[in-house]
Amino acid sequence: xxxxxxxxxxxxxxxxxxxRPKHAATVVLLRDGSSxxxxxxxxxVKGMAFAGGMTVFPGGGVDxxxxxxxxxxxxxxxxxWAQRFGCTTEVARALxxxxxxxxxxxxxxxxxxxxxxxxxxxxxxxxxxxxDLVSRDVSLAGFLAQEGLVLRADLLRPWANWVTPEQExxxxxxxxxxxxxxxxxxxxxxxxxxxxxxxATPQQALADFREGRCHLLPPTEVTLSEMAEFDALPAAxxxxxxxxxxxxKLIERDGRWHAVLPGEPGFEEA
Length: 270
Fold this sequence. Notes:
Layout: E1 22-33, E2 36-44, E3 55-56, E4 59-61, E5 73-74, H1 78-85, H2 89-107, E6 112-113, H3 127-134, H4 140-147, E7 150-152, E8 156-163, E9 172-180, E10 194-200, H5 202-210, H6 218-227, H7 233-238, E11 245-246, E12 249-253, E13 256-260
Parallel strand pairs: 1-9, 5-7, 8-11
Antiparallel strand pairs: 1-2, 1-4, 2-3, 2-10, 6-7, 8-9, 12-13
Helix pairs in contact: 1-2, 5-6
């Protein structure tokens, strides 16, 4: 597939040496729709320093407090996630916490509940705490403790590991998660980072991309293509994945910048 980047795109101030990528988490929220599984997407504000104007899944960088070992936790432990993501236990804990925190901050969806078998059905009562998380006035562990909630790591599934190309000055080592939309909750666009948010089938989102109605970074486009292969939500959540780091390269061709993936023509020469 031709992954030409938007007209006018130029890698910003490419560093002489690759910048060390920061850890980040992205969550692909899924729900059953009349035409099959749907994904929750957000179009980022154009002025954002990273991926401005792009259509993405909720997510963001790890905060140092995401590694707080006191967080109330239910489901596979940090050791299990560390094996899946090929990282330390501390980083794995931070990634899972960042996935839950960022999803709540950016979409209002909270993957937590009063105990290990329940999930919050209505998050509107936590709107003030949501803003406190955004402003970093409270940590995820502190918020959960204050509200008597438990992080539900068992509601997340490891999906992929993407790394920003070496040419970029802002780089992220991002772990992708899958999660089913909790019953009773509502995903919204109450965030300063998104110009709009909506649900769409993967097929519709990819059609919008091909026809120029939205812009997708390679990880989003590939993930949507993978989601399009499933005709039911349980099948996607049950899929077994072997994760390896995937790092695209940027090449200039015919006056446009293109992203190429390992195994694609031009990757080895870039």
